[in-house]
């Protein structure tokens, strides 16, 4: 749902960004309530769309990995960061794995001339998970999916503002 909403918003703004989604423990298909929320927004998504499982190559090739929650970021790091600090790319990769809402807050606090690399190099803001975690609607019914989509709207708009302001 997050990738579809963000991609639709980027397209509506005329921004050229590649938005994709992959899960560490991805379900087989997108949840029917998520499909309903997306279709209500005129975002075309196949109900039988297969989830993409994250892989080491996919994670390494991404410019930015947005995690929904602090626990999700920890899981992605545990799964895909090298077991030792001997890997020179580990620090760069760790910096690109962020909690979406924390990254938005970090970017809002940064100087406008800070580019994406500078934002990623800056330390995460000390924020409690309760303030930055995206609510997981799974198994909580249609209203939970609508509420999650509203959170995603806010984060996607903020992210695209950041891309427009901090990309060079």
From TrEMBL:
InterPro entries tied to this protein: Ptyr_pPase, Ptyr_pPase_sf
SMART domains the record matches: LMWPc
Domain of life (superkingdom): Bacteria
Domain Phosphotyrosine protein phosphatase I: 1-162
Record protein name field: Low molecular weight phosphotyrosine protein phosphatase
Organism: Actinoalloteichus hoggarensis
Taxon lineage: Bacteria, Bacillati, Actinomycetota, Actinomycetes, Pseudonocardiales
